[in-house]
Description:
Blueprint: H1 3-10, H2 14-22, E1 30-31, E2 37-38, H3 41-57, H4 59-70, H5 74-111, H6 124-131, H7 135-143, E3 150-151, E4 158-159, H8 162-176, H9 181-191, H10 197-233
Helix pairs in contact: 1-2, 3-4, 3-10, 4-5, 5-10, 8-9, 9-10
Amino acid sequence: MRPTDLAREHGISTQAVRxxxxxxxxxxxxxxxxxxxVYTEVHAAALRAYLALVPAFGHAAAGEVxxxxxxxxxxxxxxxxxxxxxxxxxxxxxxAAVREAVHHLAGEAAAAPERPSGPAVRTIxxxxxxxxxxxxxxxxxxxxGILAPDRDPATGYRLxxxxxxxxxxxxxxxxxxxxxxxxxxxxxxxxxxAGGTDTLARALDDWxxxxxxxxxAMLDAAALLGRYLDxxxxxxxxxxxxxx
Length: 244
């Protein structure tokens, strides 16, 4: 098979196929005496697997999986995939929790209750650890108008109370959904005002659809990667071919 044969199936360029091989996303191709690459059904199966992994786990993780497979490090490849499933599950849990809370947000904003003190107060480091981000990220969100923590009058340190933690959780969820900071700031601001929850509900519905699409992509990727591994082991024909 030629590079054009692999590229045509997926509507990509022949240079992309060569780049994937160079980067280890495809196994090395044999060469003719004149130096032309020779691809096989093994490469076709590898390309199907890699391109299916991209929408499921992202370009970087997909490349990491394929390079691990080609380096004989299957457990490392599976660990990357496990991590992707773990993140998806965590995102689903966060989404469910925020959806449950959204019904109360408008009422909280309208009533403007006094901010609680005590154990609900968090430092910037504690909140960063809770979300799995850096303190610098929280400062960026504050600069964008997403967060507005109080300051300790004695030390000047930021203090994040229950409403701040809620806003940070929402920002983190929407950021993972690909929303820019200015749009997140608008959503959070409207959530703080009566009637703002419709905006958040639409954003959550959109993010839920993205999670569903990612889950479906993971199923497709698992099937094609499993088939590719079978091809490498000589235990199954590539897609579209039948065993002799």
